[in-house]
Amino acid sequence: MQQKKKILIRMGSLRHGGAEKVLATFLKNLPKDKYEIDLLLNLYSGKYLAEIPDWINILYLNKGEMITTNRLQDIPKKAYRVIYQKMLKFFPSLLYKFILKNKKYDIEFAGIHGLRDEILNSPNKNSKKLIWIHNDLRKTHFHNYTDEEIRKFFGYDKILVISEHIQKDFENLAQNEIEKSKIIRIYNPLDTEEIKSKAEVKTEIEAEFKIKAEIQEHQPSTINHQPLTINQQPTFVSIGTVFPQKGYDRLLKVHRKLLDEGLNHKILIIGDGYDFENIKKLQNELKVENSATLLGFTDNPYPYLKNADYFVLSSRYEGFPTVLFEAITLKKNIVATNVSGVSEMLENGKLGLIVENSEDGIYIGMKQALTQPESFEKYQKELQEYKIPFDLENSVQEIMKVIDGI
After folding, report:
1. Whether the predicted pLDDT of 228 surpasses 50
2. How far separated are the first and last CA of the chain, in Å rounded?
3. Which of 30, 98, 196, 340 is the most exposed place for a label (fewest CB within 10 A)?
């Protein structure tokens, strides 16, 4: 019998972000008889903890919810976590001795780019190193990477990237064919059948979207020539972790501007994150509490997405926004800023409206949706015939091929 490969995977937490969701989906679909996996989290927290298979051993540096405020009573705990994590980062031998019990891994895998140095500095020099890049490193919120810093990623044996844009950026920095061969583009594992199934779940949304449901029931045709509305007002939904990256401040400002022009509509933002209170404050300042809803986090956003008239991606930057494929899966009308991955996913504007990555771009796109809804018919025609160019099994198999091959 072949010996199981011992794998260490490092992740910040399993809170509700795209990279976290992708990792959970991947792990759920791995064969348990082939690998021995330790998942090391900086913070034992998040909704996706419940989705990790029980055969995977979860370890952690700190436990509890993420502290997103600077309240006086939270500062000691927050400071302790930061100092503890930094100490283990700068003295990795302590981490490997006391938490990982000197275990020798065949593969060490950074689940996000932010853990680059933690894996590269591993005292286990014989392990193969693998990293998953989910973002355009040129435009991350905390830190925009220079060429020199991106070059450090070539210390890995394999670099998984999730979009053509990120792949080209890395290839342009590769100094030889060996480095180029380290870069592998693999689409994120996405369970489309689960998305469709969850979109049918009856929740409180059923009453809210009652008018829409009745119209859909009596109009089973694939293309609606007018957007379906709630109380005669089109609804735009956006889903994502509430970080500045997602551009929800821009979305609310555009919403206010369109309302001032007499174009009534609703906004629904689904998600939570450290910027939530700032966006809530902006919602109050703009006086849009009655027309824009900040739903917060929900386990199942798909009924909301399914029943909305439009999905809007207002992001300042992305890697390959998984939520956009979820909107495509549910055949939604789409308005999306032109960030990394969008042109590739929407086939250069064939499947949805791509707008300039700016407040003005979002404004022009949403205004078109409100004043020329018939212009989205061409996207609907394409969406009805579109088949996502990968499936869950293929994506998982491709990643396994990388793991087995290094």
Report:
1. no
2. 20
3. 98
Residue pair 99/77 in contact (Cβ under 8 Å)? The answer is no
Cβ pair 157, 127 in contact under 8 A: no
- Here the tokens at position 326 are 């979820």
Q: Do residues 244 and 279 lie in contact, with contact meaning Cβ atoms separated by under 8 Å?
A: no
Asked if 223 and 374 touch (Cβ cutoff 8 Å), the reply is no
d(CA 343, CA 345): 6
Query: Which CATH number fits the domain 5-190+391-405, given the four candidates 3.40.50.2000, 3.30.450.90, 3.30.70.660, 3.40.190.10?
Result: 3.40.50.2000
pLDDT digits (tens, 9 = 90+) for 264-287: 999 999 998 889 999 999 999 999
Confidence of residue 208 (pLDDT cuts 50, 70, 90): low
Q: Is 257 exposed, middle or buried (0-12, 13-18, 19+ CB in 10 A)?
A: middle
d(CA 133, CA 367): 34
Nearest-angstrom CA–CA distance, 8 and 403: 12
What architecture is the 192-385 domain classified under in CATH? 3-Layer(aba) Sandwich (3.40)
User: pLDDT tens digit string along 11-28?
Assistant: 999 987 788 989 999 999
Q: Is the dihedral of CA 212, 218, 224, 225 positive or negative?
A: negative
- Residues in contact with 134: Cβ distance below 8 Å, sequence separation at least 6, in sequence order: 18, 19, 22, 112, 113, 162, 188, 319, 320
Nearest to 364 by CA among 263, 246, 267: 263
Phi, then psi, of 132 in degrees rounded to 5: -115, 115
Q: Cα(159)–Cα(134) distance, rounded to whole angstroms?
A: 11
